[in-house]
Design brief:
With 98 residues, this protein is α+β, with helices and mostly antiparallel strands. It contains 4 helices and 2 strands. Strands 1-2 form a two-stranded antiparallel ribbon. Helix 2 packs antiparallel against helix 3. The chain is globular. 18% of the residues are buried.
Amino acid sequence: MTEDLKTRDAKAKKLGAIKCVEFEDGVIYFKAPSRHVLGIAMPKLEINPVEANEIIINNCVIREVSDVALLDNDAYFLSLISHVGDLLEVKKSQSRSL
């Protein structure tokens, strides 16, 4: 890892990054989606899944440290879709009857 990437990783963590997707010519850092973003994206999932993923990706990219020009390229964007599921953190829980 280059020194520049280590610096970017540290800055991204301070900005709430939970995932970094690396390409040969850039990186994209992601934060977790908010409930608001999920509320906008989820209804579109069955109608237009690409649009739903685009909403999540565009709202979760940490632009200050990412190579955002990659988002304009469909090949990179389609690759990012496979990482969207990793952005959703679900805590393990149990229920019990009272």
